[in-house]
């Protein structure tokens, strides 16, 4: 028989990096918080952990860039409060393999400089001086010193240790309400009462029983990733290497993350030969030495994407409901700023100007 639990100030749905960070910050402000997680790793378990708002800056994504820059500025202090979150300052080298890609990089460089971002244009010889493992055929590179990286698996483990509230395993199915006010969440085996609910469940928000007018539409976007290991230890590359549609992120212990495909395949998370081949082919044209690395893991995950590819952060259409979802490619990057914005929303504060585009209420009345 379903059992109703005790009451909490805040119930956080989702125990990934974003959910745990929101819960941690809320508990630091004195709230009694419970995190409910399904127990199945989300997109964070697949993510490479690039903290790269500048090298990812693209045409038409200025609102996302502002959020990313705000979060990146906070990351050092955020990680300083945690025990071994896997944070490192390694910068990014964005590489062009041919003339078309070089022209695209020059256009991107012009945009970045227009926005006042610090990026250096490197000739091929300069790029290979920075990273000798680069192929001699590369045409152009951009050096982004302000980018960093983190190991998302270490980050989630550190947040679990830091959060002193309750962590429960269970599958949330929907919300409990009195009229237009949220009063808690329903689980497969009961309910949890809470004054406010934070939904940070990634793609699983699409499976929650929520009134259509109050829903944030999220779709899954598949990404395949390889985790590689150099038996000789670290040193193949010391920076994140980004090419067109592919990246290689080094860890300090000689491991590397190679990713990631972008596939509209619904809820499928099966790795494929084609996806693996494309990643290895594209990166081996930039760093040939990756073909000598050992494969430790081939994995696929689902990014939570909204129709406009911007996250949904802040108060929702129902009183007591706060969203922290739809982060698409940038969930790990946006973790610190999302947690900050969520705890402000829990306190009744409005979104700052740089985050207004992420207001979840832009989707009111939109069907998923």
From TrEMBL:
Q: What is its EC number?
A: 1.4.3.19
- Name the Pfam families for this protein: DAO
Q: Name one GO molecular function term.
A: glycine oxidase activity
Q: Which UniProt keywords apply?
A: Oxidoreductase, Thiamine biosynthesis
One GO cellular component term of this record is: cytoplasm
- Domain (FAD dependent oxidoreductase) spans 9-344
Can you name this protein? glycine oxidase
* SUPFAM superfamilies associated with the record: FAD-linked reductases, C-terminal domain, FAD/NAD(P)-binding domain
Might you name a Gene Ontology BP term for this protein? thiamine biosynthetic process
- Specify the domain of life of the species encoding this protein: Bacteria
- Pathway it works in: Cofactor biosynthesis; thiamine diphosphate biosynthesis
Q: Which organism is it from?
A: Solirubrobacter ginsenosidimutans
The record's top EC class is oxidoreductase
Q: Which reaction does it catalyse?
A: glycine + O2 + H2O = glyoxylate + H2O2 + NH4(+)
Q: Which NCBIfam families match?
A: thiamin_ThiO
Record InterPro entries: FAD-dep_OxRdtase, FAD/NAD-bd_sf, Gly_oxidase_ThiO
């Amino acid at each position: 028989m379903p059992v109703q639990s005790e009451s909490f100030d805040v119930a956080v749905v989702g125990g990934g990096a974003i959910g745990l960070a929101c819960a941690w910050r809320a508990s630091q402000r004195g709230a009694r918080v419970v995190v409910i997680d399904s127990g199945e790793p989300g997109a964070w378990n697949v993510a490479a952990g690039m903290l790269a708002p500048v090298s990812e800056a693209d045409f038409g994504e200025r609102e996302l860039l502002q959020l990313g820059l705000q979060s990146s500025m906070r990351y050092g202090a955020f990680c300083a409060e945690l025990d071994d979150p896997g944070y490192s300052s390694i910068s990014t080298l964005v590489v062009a393999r041919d003339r078309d890609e070089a022209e695209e990089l020059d256009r991107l460089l012009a945009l970045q400089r227009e926005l006042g971002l610090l990026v250096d244009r490197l000739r091929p010889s300069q790029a290979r001086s920075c990273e000798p493992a680069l192929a001699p055929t590369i045409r152009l590179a951009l050096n982004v010193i302000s980018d960093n990286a983190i190991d998302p698996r270490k980050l989630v483990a550190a947040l679990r240790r830091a959060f002193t509230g309750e962590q429960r395993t269970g599958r949330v199915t929907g919300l409990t309400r009195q009229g237009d006010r949220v009063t808690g969440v329903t689980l497969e085996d009961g309910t949890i009462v809470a004054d406010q609910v934070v939904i940070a469940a990634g793609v699983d928000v699409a499976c929650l029983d929520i009134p259509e007018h109050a829903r944030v539409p999220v779709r899954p976007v598949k990404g395949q990733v390889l985790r590689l290991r150099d038996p000789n230890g670290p040193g193949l590359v010391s920076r994140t290497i980004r090419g067109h549609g592919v990246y290689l992120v080094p860890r300090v212990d000689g491991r590397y993350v190679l990713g990631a495909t972008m596939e509209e395949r619904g809820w499928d998370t099966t790795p494929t030969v084609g996806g693996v081949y494309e990643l290895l082919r594209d990166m081996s044209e930039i760093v040939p030495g990756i073909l000598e690395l050992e494969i430790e893991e081939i994995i696929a995950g689902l990014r939570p994407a909204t129709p406009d590819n911007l996250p949904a952060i802040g108060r929702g259409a129902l009183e007591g409901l706060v969203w922290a979802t739809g982060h698409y490619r940038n969930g790990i990057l946006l973790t610190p700023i999302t947690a900050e914005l969520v705890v402000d929303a829990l306190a009744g504060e409005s979104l700052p100007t740089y985050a207004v585009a992420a207001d979840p209420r832009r989707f009111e009345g939109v069907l998923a």
